[in-house]
Amino acid sequence: MRDESDGNGGVASEAPVAYTQPRIHGLLANPLRHEIVMRTSARPWTASELAVVTGKTLKHVSKALEDLRKASLVELVERRPGPKGGIVRFYRAVRFIIDAEEWEHLSVPEQASSTAKIVAELQRDQARALEGGTYYSHPHHVLIRDHRQMDDEGMQSSDKILCRAYDELIEVERESLKRCEQSGEEPKQVVLGLTAFLAAPERSSE
Predict the structure, then answer these.
(1) Of 18, 54, 42, 25, the residue nearest 91 (C-alpha)
(2) Smallest Cα–Cα separation from 40: which of 96, 93, 98?
(3) What are the beta bridge partners of residue 5?
(4) With CB atoms 3.0 to 4.6 Å apart as the test, which of 54, 106, 140, 179 could cross-link to 110 if both were Cys?
């Protein structure tokens, strides 16, 4: 699955990113660059805004943005006059999801490394939320764990359903940010974890 929209119903002009290139995986293995790509998938961000939400220095964020721009993972979409002079630049993600065909072109070690990184980050987010009591604090939080039996076609359908749900959630974020901008409400940081995978074999009791 891929997302190449420009956030305004148009299509980004950049050519698809070659995710099979080791350099791309190396870039996204960095937590800061990974977070920048995820955040800029919803709306354009400035380097200063990203520095605030990530807790990193403007210098580090600007360097990460430049690396991502050179790799065509983010693009410069707008320039505006700054409130104190100068030019403010806005960046947006070009692509941020690997489709099934691209995944198959990765080596087994690359697949394992990429998956392990994301799982570890999700587990870290969950652990922090549990420790801080925020995991279950909102009345509309969601926690679903289930086991189902499917064939290959069923797995393909699950892939499409979850990716479609993710696209819809990105749109929900865009709408939320617009409402927050109008109302002055502070947006809440929400962790999303959409996953479907083959269960490991049951361990022998012997």
Answers:
(1) 42
(2) 93
(3) 11
(4) 106
**Ramachandran quadrant class, 21 (left: phi over 0; alpha: psi -120 to 50; beta: rest):** beta
Tell me the torsion sign for CA atoms 181, 187, 189, 195.
Answer: negative
Residues 25-38: tens digit of each pLDDT:
677 778 888 889 88
Q: How far apart are CA 2 and CA 99, in angstroms?
A: 6
Which pTM does this prediction carry?
Answer: 0.65
Tokens of 75: 């693009």
Look at the domain 1-106 and name its fold. Arc Repressor Mutant, subunit A (1.10.10)
* Rounded CA separation 75/40 (Å): 10
SS3 95: coil
Q: What is the DSSP letter of 17?
A: P
Distance in angstroms (rounded) separating the CA atoms of residues 145 and 199: 12
